[in-house]
């Protein structure tokens, strides 16, 4: 019996994920410097354009699927954010240090650079970057801060506001120093910054303990 037109093979998702993982590894090797055209993606992966179209429809479809694939790969990284290390101020510093280490030693920074550079001003890819990369990170930080609120260490406030206060400056610093050449234009000691930023956050959000 022939397969109905438009139906999918049983191993459709397996093959699709294999293509995405191969693309991810290729782009990691190239440090996500650019995203190839649809035809060049097919060439890079050694598949035919019709095959690529079967799984992703278009270049934007490939990019959106790749962001989703990266989100799934990053779940273990985000799970670690949910577990406080130590109490209070020490935990906040270690959280910032952990995010920074991902930017500096792994592909995290390059992936966010890729998402920002291709998502800015794009009505489809911009929201896809937010949904699959930035918002999961922000949500994990929010949930970490909520735990500290429950431990009576942080003031009662909107967790999203506190999380943005905490990681937005860090993002700017890391992009400035690591991705925009700021280490040459105006170098900044990252570890000193993390300590200073932790101090500022703690002064603003720490709950005053009764003596």
Automatic annotation (TrEMBL):
Residues 37-56 bind DNA. Keywords: DNA-binding. Residues 13-74 form the HTH tetR-type domain. The keyword Repressor does not apply. Gene3D superfamilies: Tetracycline Repressor, domain 2 (1.10.357.10). InterPro entries: Homeodomain-like_sf (IPR009057), HTH_TetR (IPR001647). One of its GO terms (molecular function) is DNA binding. This is TetR/AcrR family transcriptional regulator.
């Amino acid at each position: 019996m022939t397969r109905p037109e438009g139906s999918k093979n049983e191993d459709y998702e397996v093959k699709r994920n294999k293509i995405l993982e191969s693309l991810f590894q290729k782009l990691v090797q190239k440090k996500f410097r650019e995203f190839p055209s649809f035809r060049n993606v097919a060439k890079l992966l050694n598949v035919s354009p019709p095959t690529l179209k079967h799984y992703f429809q278009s270049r934007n479809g490939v990019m959106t699927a790749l962001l989703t694939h990266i989100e799934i790969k990053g779940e273990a990284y985000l799970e670690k954010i949910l577990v406080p290390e130590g109490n209070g101020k020490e935990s906040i510093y270690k959280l910032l240090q952990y995010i920074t280490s991902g930017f500096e030693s792994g592909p995290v920074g390059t992936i966010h650079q890729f998402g920002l550079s291709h998502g800015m001003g794009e009505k489809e890819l911009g929201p896809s970057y937010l949904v699959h990369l930035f918002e999961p990170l922000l949500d994990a930080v929010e949930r970490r801060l909520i735990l500290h609120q429950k431990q009576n260490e942080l003031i009662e406030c909107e967790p999203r506001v506190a999380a943005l206060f905490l990681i937005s400056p860090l993002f700017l610093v890391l992009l400035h120093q690591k991705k925009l050449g700021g280490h040459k234009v105006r170098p900044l000691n990252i570890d000193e910054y993390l300590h200073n930023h932790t101090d500022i956050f703690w002064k603003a959000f720490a709950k005053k303990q009764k003596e």
